[in-house]
Amino acid sequence: MEQQTEIALETIGSITLFDIKGDVTALSESFLNDAYQKALDQGVSKILLKFKKDAYINSGGIALLIQILAESKKNNQQTKITGLSDHFKKIFNMVGITKFADIHDSVEAAVEAMSGPS
Amino acid sequence: MSANEQMVRRLDSRTIEVSLPSRLGYERIAMDCSASFAKMVGFAPERIEDLKTAVAEACINAIEHGNKGHPDLRVLVTMNFNDDRFSVSVKDGGKGILRLPKDKTVKQTIEKLKPPKGLGTYLIKQLVDEVEFNDMTKDGHAVKMVIKLTRKPYSPAKK
């Protein structure tokens, strides 16, 4: 029933892109934490979370993203978000995630906003 | 699939019932069913997305907290469309939500970057036009929601 989360890490200059495929729910915890730990081990300072437009993200997934944002803030990492549908842009704004990670319409726009020293 | 496992039933021309096992992931059946029904009766895509999220969150609460994932208990989702009102009842075998977190508390917890309790009920309240938690029945508890065909768009400044 659950479409398992898959996260591929890609490097774009000084940015590590989390290419998140599948559902983002409470069951995605190990996938998100593993990806974040890998990025942390690599010493990255800029993280771009890229979602699929048709992703199913629920409150359990949002709670995990809040944890990732808390960790990245603690580790002085800059985080931004892209790829969301209009509905989930609204939801992320509604819950206040956008105070900690801006949402951009495309990877290119996010990369441009993140270029320069962190 | 046996008759006992039948998930979707048409109760009348305006009412559909979905019976879900108490297992996370099955909320997607209710989501997709509500989306198809709402599309059929003329809801705009944006409102359908609101409905899907509200139905999913109510089902997740029913599965996790109401039925506590008990395999023998079902979550019953009843959907009805009348005039411009799409009503959804999500029923479980639990005792209801004893302490409903305040919206302000949920937002303040997120502002401290801590995972909040009650995020699902917070989202439901933001997305639907009417909601009633803790509607107690003789064999459980139901959340009742109404989403209207048209609604003013969400405005962050008002929240």
What's the structural blueprint in terms of helices and strands?
The complex is a heterodimer of chains A (118) and B (159).
Chain A: E1 6-12, E2 15-21, H1 29-41, E3 46-50, H2 59-74, E4 78-82, H3 86-95, E5 102-104, H4 107-114
Parallel strand pairs in A: 2-3, 3-4, 4-5
Antiparallel strand pairs in A: 1-2
Helix pairs in contact in A: 1-2
Chain B: E1 8-12, E2 15-21, H1 27-40, H2 45-66, E3 74-82, E4 85-92, H3 103-111, H4 119-127, E5 130-137, E6 140-148
Antiparallel strand pairs in B: 1-2, 2-3, 3-4, 4-6, 5-6
Helix pairs in contact in B: 1-2, 2-4
Low-confidence stretches of chain B: none
**How many beta-strand elements of chain A?**
5
The class by helix and strand makeup of chain A works out as alpha/beta
Q: Greatest chain-chain interface?
A: A-B, 29 and 30 residues
Report the sheet with the most strands of chain A, covering strand number, pairing sense and barrel closure.
Answer: 5 strands, mixed
Into which percent range does the helicity of residues of chain A fall?
25-40%
Query: What is the percentage of strand-forming residues of chain A?
Result: 15-25%
Describe the biggest sheet of chain B? 6 strands, antiparallel
Shape of chain B: globular
Query: What's the mean pLDDT score of chain B?
Result: 90
Which term fits the overall shape of chain A? globular
Name the structural class of chain B.
alpha+beta
Mean pLDDT across every amino acid position of chain A: 93
Gyration radius of chain A, rounded: 13 Å
The poorly predicted ranges of chain A are: none
Number of helices of chain B: 4
Task: Report the β-strand fraction of chain B as a percent range.
Answer: 25-35%
